Amino acid sequence: MVVIDFTASVVTAGGLRQRIESLRQAYSPDCEDYFNEIMRRRGAAFCDSASGFLLLDSLLQANKIDRAAVPIILGSDSRPHIASSCLDFSVSHSEGCAFCALAVGENANIGCDVQRVRDYSPEQLDKLAGTFMNKRELENFVKSPDKTTDFFRAWTRRESYVKRVGSDIFDNLSCADISGELYRDGVIFACGRRYFYSINYPADEIISFAEDSVFPDKNGV
Q1: Helix (H, G, I), strand (E, B) or coil at 135
Q2: Mind listing the pLDDT tens digit for each residue in 35-76?
Q3: Which CATH architecture group holds 2-117+182-219?
Q4: For position 145, what pLDDT does the model report?
Q5: How far, rounded to the nearest angstrom, does the alpha carbon of residue 131 sit from its chain's CA centroid?
Q6: Cα dist from 117 to 109, 155, 162, 174, 185, whole Å
Q7: Which of 49, 55, 192, 200 is the most exposed place for a label (fewest CB within 10 A)?
């Protein structure tokens, strides 16, 4: 069985570098490139990456995982991942919100995405939907009574799937076949903004969500 836990936070800048430096001592030397990649970033890119790591760190601690035994490495695309078949994580950011999902168990595999909701007109939503939805999806979407919800749910689901399977989001978003996939969807309200999130996980695995998971749509982080 694979257990999934997740959390979210508002992205802030205060004291992040000091927190990263203090926490990196708890991790394996194998993570050095990952931490160096975070620390070399500047501005919003640093805040996003640092906040994503802090969320991952909190999930590892909450699930009583020895952080010194967690090898976080960078792939050829500079994206971080855990070099273990029993742990996987995914991080997403969107205009002031950071989101992290952790999967623990044999063949752990997970992807997540969060997107801030913008006030697009129905015409704008139709145009944007046409850039990534297939014909069947578009036919249903144009008749939707709540295009905003359906648009952002479809977008976050597709991005979370592409992240899980490891494809390039810009090359494969429009052609990704997400039929038969499983998702955990929700809404976050923070600082007067609304965010949709989606977590994608394999349909052929037995999944359990951690009982003490933070449910942002209820808690309003």
Answers
A1: helix
A2: 999 999 999 999 999 999 999 999 999 999 999 999 999 988
A3: Alpha-Beta Complex (3.90)
A4: 94
A5: 22
A6: 27, 11, 20, 20, 14
A7: 192
